[in-house]
Batch of 2 targets.
Target 1
Amino acid sequence: MDFNDTSQEAAFRSEAAGWLKENQLTDADREGRSPLEVAKLWQKRKYEAGWACIGWDKEYGGRGASPIERVIWDQEESKYSVPSRFFVIGQGMIAPTLMVWAQPQHKENFLPKLASGEEIWCQLFSEPAGGSDLAALRTKAEKDGDDWIINGQKIWTSQAHYADYGIVVTRTDPTVAKHKGLTMFIVDMKMPGIEIKPIKQLTGDSDFNEVYFTDVRIPDHYRLGDVGQGWTAALTTLMNERLAIGGGGPGADVKLAMEIASLVEINGRPAIEDSAVRAKIAEFHVLEAGLEYNGYRAITALSRGELPGPENSIGKLVGAPKLQAVASFCMDLLEESGVLWSEDDLLSSLAQRSYMGAPGLRIAGGTDEIMTNIIAERVLGLPQDPRLDKGIPFNEVPTGN
Amino acid sequence: MNFEFSEEQLMLREQARGFLGQHCSPSVARSVLDGARNFDPDLWQKVAEMGWTATAIPEEYGGLGLGYYELAIIAEELGRAVAPIPFSSSVFLASEAIMAFGNTAQKNKWLPGLASGDSIGTFALAERPGSATADNLLSRYDQQSVTGAKAPTADAMIANFAVVVCKASPGHVHLAIVDLSDSSVARETLKTLDPSRGHGKVMFENSPAELLGEHEVSWSALENLLDRAAVLMAWEQLGIADKALEQACDYAKQRFAFGRAIGSFQAIKHKLAAMYVKNTLARSNAYHGVWALASDSDSLPLAAATARVASTQASLYAAQENIQTHGGMGFTWEFDCQFYYRRAKLLSLAIGSERHWQDRLVSALQRQRAAA
């Protein structure tokens, strides 16, 4: 066991740090550009220098870096304020799906543009009738000559309003059991027949959309995997989704709680001296540190050629509720001022924003409950719940209103 | 970066698990629990023959000169097996105290016996309910003798000697080695919730004592010793946590109610998944803890407290919910669930409770923040 860089890792780190220092985004780069434009500018700069998606093969725009090198790069890049959220879905979830399931010409065409940030992708999975029970989705794809015609509705689609392409799971055969009648396709989001409506969230933001498909025509070579293999293909995306989302990025954490507890008072003494406050902070630290070192263990396993397993589901399962709890605790420390959406430096509304955002994180990419089931069934080997839809043709499965 | 045990270390785990499977089945803990003995001397001898008591002691003092990674692995396996032997007292505390504070003559005198298992040491800190501090201790060392009473002291009835923590100048303690067979020492067995790891009260009356090192030591130096023990204890607790989870899963798969395995009910399933999550986080924190211990990292106080709190929480939760998963049978003397429940609580109170280590954890965070 060794936390320190090997000499090879140290050399890689210094090369990465050197490039980042030379090429970091300047105020001039940010001037007059939207966050998406800044993100694309930064991604392109990395791509041209061979620093984009470094774990990918060279032919797809990466440099075949090892898992440890990816971590080193992420650590070094995170020292700078750079936008990355626009590419998480495309690079983190969809690209691995294309690598497994797309035809060679599509890999050659799309993957480099995903790496360079030129094209943004979205993931069209959830539906009004299929969330946690994703395989209950109803959007239809019907064969028409060499094409497929898609009709239906997707929901909770992040980035659909500015995505160039998406991957969509459809039902191609309602007469077989629900998991068996699915097929996945690439879809050009600018095609006629696609209508996108933003959803206003409880935060007031609109990160998600409803996407309506009306007679959208897709060529057969956009199919990912065989007809009826859509569920297996979707699992590739979902497993990578759980790795990509993890704890959910920056937000209220132990550092913020320590900062606030050192500045506010309880009964005339710094809150950090209060034993109940200390117990809470310790509890949060155990979760944060546990997730961090869990990540290092996962990377070590990856670097030894082991595949990421369902145990990686715990990142989001622990991280999202922890975010909610830390945020709520930080606001408690502020007493009545906790309600303020302050622009003040210390308070900076990080706790409030995390508090409002956390419910979404606990649901997106598999709810806490689904993640818990995955651990129980796939890691601990416990039996599945009896399913009333098991083995029954999809069009005979009981439905509600 | 490499955050995994080596091949050799993983082989040691296999070997230790096999050995304890053969020599420390639950019936071994049960026979100590049912009987009048304080530990299992046969098992202790076998464990010593395996060289486990010698693991981290340098070769020049009769040890194997391996490291803390190996000791952590053994600790976890002893936890899984709820081994009724004084390993933590003698190895994690007494041996470590002598290695940390003893002079060369003392190391030569005491370590070979500890390494071979011929001598059992214990560590006597607690005197009464509530947490011990440098200033509230009553035991005194003066002119090569100790006077005072220590209770509860783990393995007091079977130990050959104790490292006794005595009050010294403010913020300091004397660590004194006392031969427990001396006629000036009186011992009485204390009834505890885990009789498979006996405890006693030890009374010293001008008992001949040898000061460990030549001076008093600061309370923070003593805390460093406890940090080191806390990492190893965390691994032992982790063994309990994982074994309790395993037992609960096995039972949930074979026990049927309402026509289905109870493990298919989400009420049970989610409980077991929650155990797994706590155990996994505790394991990752324990990895960091043993790394900090083995590499003498400045982060040891934070790493140790984090590992200790995580393992305490995981083991208590797993042991208690294992009983719950078993229903009424889990509450019987006949079932083994009780062993993990008893031992988890006992270990969580040795060298400081969860609250105590949470406090230490935040103190370490505060120091880190002040240094940043």
Target 2
Amino acid sequence: MDLAKQIEPTAEMTGRRRAAGLLSRASMDELNAAFAKLTDKPDVKPVRGPETGLVMVRGRIGGGGAPFNLGEATVTRATVLLASGTAGHAHVLGTDKEKVRLAAIFDALWQEAATQDFVEAALLTPIEARIAAEDKQKAEETAATRVDFFTMVRGDD
Amino acid sequence: MYVAVKGGEAAINNAHRLLADRRRGDRSLPAVTIEQIVEQLGLAVDRVMAEASLYDRSLAALAVRQSRGDMIEAIFLLRAYRTTLPRFGTSVPVDTNKMKVERRVSATYKDLPGGQLLGPTFDYTHRLLDPSLLTDTPVEEPARRDETGEHVMRVSDILAHEGLIEADGEFPEDHEAGDLTREPMEFPMGRDLRLQALARGDEGFLLALGYSTQRGYGRNHPFVGEVRIGEVEVELEVAELGFSVSLGRIRVTECQMVNQFKGSSKAPPQFTRGYGLVFGQSERKAMSMSLVDRALRAEELGEDITAPAQDEEFVISHSDNVQATGFVEHLKLPHYVDFQAELALVRKMRSDIEKARKGDRSEMPEAAE
């Protein structure tokens, strides 16, 4: 596993980043529904947390300059270990501990060859679709408030 | 002489019980829920998050409810809560260029990539009280229009292409962003620390200072290059993974103020800038912040410091409303002993003067008071 990571870090990284990003956006209902669908419930050992803390959110001066500290945000994190030895991590904005614990379990299950497809189909793909739909709706609502300037033409045909 | 330091316990307990009762109000009405506050009083929630310097919509709504709508009290509650939590780390700087834009307007360009997107604004409303909100009248769904997919380009980038505007603020490569919550304030302070202070500063105070620059107290000739509101991704470098992951999104408001140009014998004239970035939806605060940021750059830009808004120590030392309210409101707490001492002093001075007067009348009548 570790060796595989070293041999192909980018593919592993991109996949893991995507999974972690989507899991951070999962709702409690989505996580619960996916967990209920799991045929073999995993044997999970908590390693760290779930615990709530802060992350200092940074911005950049002028939008793209040197970083500055904008303010903090609540973050809850959890690390769990499957019986196979695979560790799952989750870091999510907010204070919902149970949600983050489940997200960490699915992060671990996503790394296992046997369950990756399940996590993908039961959780990641639907979340991705939901986010895309929500973003599209918002973008369209915003687009409807776009100003269409027109010029009054005079004395000219 | 401490005489009455005990004895308030029962009164305090009953006062807090009374507070809980008044907070709940008429029991025949349903209690407001946290979700209702988040959904329907969202801008109050945003202000509490911004000035508490803690992004958490639910906790900010709880603070609003607990404080009976007293914003500074709510900000205080959230600040206090923040101190109970450990810090896990520092995010990768948020990229406002990749914002999921919900509103973006520019006062400098009419037609610009991405367009003028009004979003959910109070602008152009007639500010007439709306009787339909007295009851729960059904509300229309928003209108929709196909999005163009056009990137909402930063106005500062448009000007930067021609070299007409100064760059985003830079520090040397090895500069680590200062943190007010970790180190005591020292003046003069870097622009990074000032922006942190302004981002959590009191909206009213910054609004008044920004306004004062417009009225001539440190004028800096501002144009709103753009104001944008929307969600940005928060990413954290996770040690266990060795790369950054997204924690979710937060909504922020950004203001790029384009200010009076400046040139020298070496450099051709260029517009200068002020910057504002605030948690939540608050363009009044972001605009005020950018005006004050620009005013506070007076020394850096070789301008005379003549007005309050340009005085870094004055502005930053008084912008935090939790500190300010703490010091102002402490005046109502018992000062019995201090006051007794002052009272005794005034009495003694008066009796000394009285004695001197009597003595003067009988002896030398010239040295009164």
